[in-house]
Amino acid sequence: MSTRIYLGELEELVLLMVALLNKEAYGVSIMEELKKQASREISVSAIHAVLHRLEEKGFVRSKMGGASDERGGRRKRLFSITAYGRDVLIEQRDTRAIIWNQIGNISLS
Amino acid sequence: MKHNEIKTPQWIDSIIDTLAPAHFAEEIRGDLYECFRMDLEEKGIRTARRKYVWRGLGFVFKRFFWKKTPFITSNSLTMILNYFKMAKRSLLASKGTSFINIIGLVTGIASALTVIAVIRYETSFDTFHSKADRIYRVVRISGEDMSEFRSGISFPVHRAMRDEIAGLNDIAAMEYFGGAYVDVLDTKGNSERKFREEFGFALVEPSFFKVFDFAQTNFKWLAGNKEKAFDEPFNTVLTSSMAKKYFGNEDPIGRTIKIQQKFDCKVTGVIEDFPPNTDFPFTVLLSYASVPTLASKGVYDDWFSVNDSHHVYLRLPEHMSKEEMEKQIAKIHAAHTPKELHESRHYLLQSLSELHHDARFSNYSRRTISRETILGLSIVMLFLLLTACINYINLATAQSTLRSKEIGVRKVMGSNQRHVMLQFLTETFVIVSLSAFAALLVADAILITFQSLLNVTFTQHVFTDTTLLLFLLIIVASVTLFAGFYPALIISRFNPVTALKNNLNLQKPSAFSMRKVLVVFQFTITQILVVGTFIVMSQIQYFSHVNMGFNREGIISTRVHSRNLNTLETLRNKLLANPDVADVSYSYTLPSGVKRNRSYADIGRTDANEMKDYLVYEFVSIDPSYLGLYDIKLLAGRNLMMSDSIGNILVNKTLLKNLQLGTPNEAIGKELKRSDGERSTIVGVVDDYYGNSLKEQADNIVMLIQRTEYATLSIKLNVKESESLQSVVDGVGQIWLETFPEYIFNYTFLDENIKAFYVQEEKYARLFQMFSIVFLLIGLLGLYGLISFLANRKSKEVAVRKVFGATLMSIMILFSKDYIKLIALSFILSVPVAYYLLNDWLSHFANHIELQWWLFILPGLGVLLVTMLIVGMKMLNTARINPVDKLKYE
Q1: Contacts A74 to B, Cβ<8 Å
Q2: Which of A12, B183, B198, B605 could pair with B191 in a Cys bridge, judged by C-beta atoms 3.0 to 4.6 Å apart?
Q3: Dist CA B29 CA B817 (whole Å)
Q4: In whole angstroms, what is the distance from residue B787 CA to residue B874 CA?
């Protein structure tokens, strides 16, 4: 990857959630999952905004999913991670791992 | 599932639905709803709703929310945007042609808008009353062949109608007497200010405002009791501008104005000014209860006598048709009058919408515009737009060769004919829209500047008039289609291979002849108008210069307010003592002019018995100096003397002829009998003069001396070159005021008074003039555009010809002769049409010019000359170019 991909902290979290939820990722489920996994309370509109950004960057793709009664008969947009998105996540993780390795057994004192 | 019934806050939903793209709205509202349901179970309804609002608003502040269709980019939209971009580029690429196109279209559209605005104004008269379609005027049609159309109704008629026709509530009689002297009295009853008003005074029944309620205007009562304002005789209601004029900022209610130095009128109400588009131009409304006092004795209850300014209007009751009402009126009329009257006179109904368009009856505003004139204007308007379109078509097809490469490339890249047409229509649309916008501004300026010429009063700007804007949209759409379709078709038909090889020759016979046809069509219309203008102007020249049988130069006239002969003689002597005064004469009225009173009676030979033996004549009371002052020729006999009784009369030649009294000399001494039995003796015969406009024939005239009838003072001025006319008139006015100190000196010049006969014709002439200038301008612009284009394209050919020895002259002739031929052809086509139309117009006038050949040739030559000048100038520029400059780049 020649150009540096910028992935913000929230973006990374949301992207992880999309990967985690695997085909069941949409606005509300991501919001719930974030609360559960990371104790982060993010407004649903902010989630949507992040998802749009991710889609523009090509990390996720979406399609309209089935309607359910809980949503008053409205369809949801279901997100799934793209291969590119997965690569970016892995790269990000690896970068950090390498750095952590270099830090080694850093004394926290 | 109980939560299903609980509604989410509606307004947030509608915000999201309207603002967000559809595919967003669904998922956003779905997510919001899910959160709402969860909140509802955990925190209760109020919190849930509050959170719903906050979350919803949260979306509105996100950028993605406002992004339009980020996922699907429509190809057709991009193409259309591209068409606009191309339109802009091609506009800028050929600035000259674009400029000519736009100027042509602006002129055409602006004129069309102006005409539409005028037509709309003229058709808006009195349409704003409640149930205006059920309001009718009672009119009088009389004569054996029902050929006399009048609007005056005898005084008792409407009273009988009101009493005897069941269900008829809304009926209003009124009399309009126009101008008056007004003295504004102070609270002690002394005259404070004096005014002479020329129009606006009317007597109206209290029911006037029931029939004419001006419901759809801003009209309202500003002060006074609406119900009781007209109860007493000489109660007066003023419009707000008159109230302001007479009383300034003081409260006018209860104050008094004195009218005609005689009648004290108490102001009982103030109303908003009437709108300008009404045929009831009233400003001072007196109560109808004053009529019995004002009318001559007996007239108020007389079913015979009529006064043409006394009108009756009614609103048909719901259940009654126009025909039923006419039947009822006829019944009442028959019941009250003898057979000879109700068989020769019929009261019928005329609908209010005809009031402004039917010239057979007059109305109070004295302006009618016939439906034919409106139709004519509409046709002219269509032609205006058409010529503007033709310009565009011609220039666009001519220019299309320049675009052949572009079209070729587009077609090779996959455009089909439809795409290319759409592109060119878009281009046309851009140009037309730009022009339409400019035209709107121009039309507004025209309408404001030429209000008096167009005889309209506009209270609002063009661009605030939604109907007019709608018309503009229609014009833009139809001009775009009409002007754009043909060029688009031609251009889109290009074969890409030939187009790309750039040897496409658009001057195929078919394309070129279409252009010729259009140019000929355009110039035919122009020529018709130019010839029309020329002939209308000649007719008006004729009107103002022909000898009317009397002198009209340097004569002013004014009124006298005394019947006392001594007073009048003193005034005459005082005036004659003034060196600026050449002659003075008293008479009942003027020999001619618009401001003139007429009195008619019947006269016949002594052996006349039946009505048909008598002749209607106009009798004028004069004094001995009248003939001299006006230069009216005495053909035989003698002038009248002050000592003559009313039995001694002068007659004119027409009367002599109509009563078959022989030659002037033979007629002297003959007796005539009036229909009331009185005998008169002819003592002199005068030559005919035109008492009416020259549109009509001379009347039968009898002159006599009747001192009690003197109402008009004619003064012939003797103005030396060193003096200003104004100071001479002021001097005369001073003398007049010494005699009548309580009045205002009001005078008219006789020649202006006569000129006023032809106001309508002069308006036509100026309208013709404007239209023909506009047409000529558009036509020449188009021609100029075509020629410039041709000149550029052919510059190489010109250069080659010059190299081979062609002279300047031969080149110019070669390139201009086609166009000169076209103009000549259009002239030949225009002559029969113009002849037909103008012959018809002139035949309305008793005195008119003959349609001679030079009246057509002269304006035709003029147009040809202007065309040649324009074409020639452009060709000259091309022909003078040094051939080296044009040829060397190869």
Answers
A1: 26-27, 29-30, 33
A2: B183
A3: 74
A4: 7
Q: Which residue of A has its CA nearest to B36?
A: A71
Q: How far is CA B316 from CA A25, A70, B131, B153, in A?
A: 75, 65, 10, 18
Query: In the numeric block, which tokens belong to residue B473?
Result: 């949209």
Residues 6+ apart with CB under 8 A from A46: A10, B58, B62
Long-range contacts of B520-523 (CB under 8 A, 24+ apart): B520/B822, B520/B825, B520/B826, B520/B829, B521/B390, B521/B826, B522/B386, B522/B387, B522/B390, B522/B391, B522/B778, B522/B779, B522/B782, B522/B826, B523/B779, B523/B822, B523/B823, B523/B826, B523/B827, B523/B830, B523/B863
The secondary structure of B243-304 as a DSSP string is HHHHHTTS--TT-EEEETTTEEEEEEEEEPPPPSS-S---SEEEEGGGHHHHSPTTGGG-SS
**Rg value, chain B, Cα:** 37
- What residues of A are in contact with residue B28 (Cβ under 8 Å)? 27, 48
Contacting residues of B for A11, CB less than 8 Å apart = none
| Structure token pair of residue B317 | 């009751």
Q: Which two tokens stand for residue B41?
A: 């179970």
Please indicate whether, in this complex, the C-beta atoms of B23 and A64 are within 8 angstroms of each other: yes
Structure tokens at B490: 């031609």
Angle (CA) A60 A63 A66, round 5°: 135
Residue A10, amino acid = L
Among candidates B325, B323, B344, B342, which has minimal Cα distance to B333? B342
Inspect the interface and report whether the beta carbons of B27 and A76 lie closer than 8 Å: yes
Spatial distance between the Cα atoms of B340 and B517, rounded to a whole number of angstroms: 63
pLDDT at B628 over 50: yes
- Chain A interface includes B3 (CB < 8 A): no
Task: In whole angstroms, give the CA distance from residue B420 to residue B492.
Answer: 5
Give the global pTM. Answer: 0.70
From A93's Cα to the closest Cα of chain B, the distance in A is 28
B451 against B263, higher pLDDT: B263
∠ CA(A74), CA(A78), CA(A81), 5° rounding? 170
pLDDT tens, residue by residue, B230-282:
988 999 999 999 999 999 888 999 899 998 888 899 999 999 999 988 999 99
Q: Does B62 touch chain A (CB under 8 A)?
A: yes
Name B403's Cβ contacts closer than 8 Å, sequence gap at least 6.
B90, B491
Question: B228 and chain A: CB distance < 8 Å anywhere?
Answer: no
Q: Respond yes or no on whether ipTM tops 0.95.
A: no
Q: Which residues pair with A78 in a beta bridge?
A: A63
3-state secondary structure of B620: strand
- Tell me if B58 and A45 make a contact (CB, 8 A cut-off): yes
In tens, the pLDDT along B378-411 reads: 988 898 899 889 988 888 888 877 788 888 888 8
d(CA B626, CA B715): 10
User: Are A27 and B27 a contacting pair at CB < 8 A?
Assistant: yes
> Considering only alpha carbons, which residue of chain B is nearest residue A78?
B27
Q: Which chain A residues are closer than 8 Å to B27 by Cβ? A: 26-27, 48, 64, 74-77
Q: Compute the average pLDDT of residues B637-645.
A: 86
Token pair for residue A18?
Answer: 């999309």
Q: How confident is the model at residue B653 (pLDDT cuts 50, 70, 90)?
A: confident
The terminus-to-terminus CA distance of chain B in angstroms comes to 87
Distance, C-alpha B83 to centroid of its chain: 42
Reading the block at residue B604, the tokens are 């016949």
* Selection from B597, B595, B531 nearest residue B756 by Cα: B595
